[in-house]
What we know:
Layout: H1 3-15, H2 22-30, E1 41-42, E2 64-65, E3 74-75, H3 76-92, H4 112-119, E4 126-128, H5 132-143, E5 152-156, H6 161-173, H7 178-181, E6 182-185, H8 196-206, E7 210-216, H9 228-237, E8 241-245, H10 257-260, E9 264-267, E10 282-285, H11 305-308, H12 331-344, H13 349-371, E11 383-385, E12 398-402, H14 406-415, E13 418-419, E14 421-423, E15 427-430, H15 439-457
Parallel strand pairs: 2-13, 5-6, 5-7, 7-8, 8-9
Antiparallel strand pairs: 1-3, 4-10, 9-10, 11-12, 12-15, 14-15
Amino acid sequence: MDPCAAVVERAARLLSCSPAAPEVARFLDERDELRHLRTQFLVPKVNELPPSDLSLAEGAEECIYFAGNSLGLQPKMAGKYIQEELDKWAKTGVHGHTVGSRPWAWAENTIEGLMADIVGAKPEEVALMNGLTVNLHVLLLSFYKPTAKRHKILLEDKAFPSDHYAVESQICLRGFDPEQSMLLMKPRKGEHTLRTEDILDAIEKEGDSIAVIVFSGVQYYTGQLFNMAAITRAGQAKGCYVGFDCAHAVGNVELYLHDWGVDFACWCSYKYVNSGAGGLAGAYIHEKHAHTVTPALRGWWGHNLKTRFKMDNTMDLLPGISGFRLSNQPILLVCPLQASLEIFSQTSMKSLRKKSILLTGYLEYLIKHFYSKDESNLSKPYVQIITPSNPEERGCQLSLSFSVPILAVFKELEKRGVACDMREPNVLRVAPVPLYNSFSDVHQFINLLGSAILASSKPQGS
Length: 462
């Protein structure tokens, strides 16, 4: 039996109730060692969400927030830290660059160690800068050096659009044709996700012509967690650089970028790392490249801090990813990121991952319990989970496909105070986040999903 299902059913036996009963959720919440972390976030109220209808939300005050895969909740300390910097600016002006708890001239440096812990890297391998797509471009400018023989970039067919566009434009920038140089991996016919053996087989067959592999850590649409270690080993064995867009992986799953030997990576911080919309992004380069891969574009923030302000226009380039910095970082973006990273520092990714596997497994169990396809009653609406069922192949997100029109279900969920998101053509992404979601959130979501499906299935005007 699936380990998560075994936990749920064992709890039900202890409580002498159905595995689908709310008592099971309460039982699991009471034993959740991380439940106190929720109190450090601001959870939107149902009556504050624009599409909600309080009469349909079953009396809940706080919304069911399962949209951390798109935008994480606000840490309570974010506003305090931002206000501190506004006050410092008002009172000390330019002196804020060098005084206070987070001097503006190096504020991001003070929290890079916290971020490095989350991605499994050394602090000197991580920089907080720019936005995700900017960082991907900056990294590819240095790692993608195509030749007539080795000019391809391997990525998944349904990569996040920004990644696809970045790769496409980098190929064009070098004078190559994306039709020839973009190698897109597609799932097998009739399947939703890529098999690891197929990825490794493609690398083995095409590796001599591949310059760079750029994969997601967690695929945004399907929620599939790729075997980053295996992909890295296979790519490097064929002489390819291997990099990852970790936007949906950072703060979601355990990462060991340094130990895996990943060449480079980048990520945003506003999803599972809760830094706010457009928050400060991160980038990583393995220490083995610290003195051999240098930035194609240079700015003064890549200059050694000790000599930066001599302003002699003689570059004293910092080694590794630090040398890729271009400009000083916006202090108002550093503040919410610091607030979130401090919460992460109160636990570990291993502990968060342990809870996440059970939390998402509980969601999967209840969906299958209530909404599996019934061959004896084909008129009954059902839900298909396209995310891999193996917990080792997914993060906290489940991508759901419905037998009834998905837009109608999504709108009905919004009316009931559920925050999740829909992605074309036919997927609802639901992400119970271990930092702030509870097992009771999952149970309540299942109840609301039932009423949403029922409402969406009714003929118009009935």
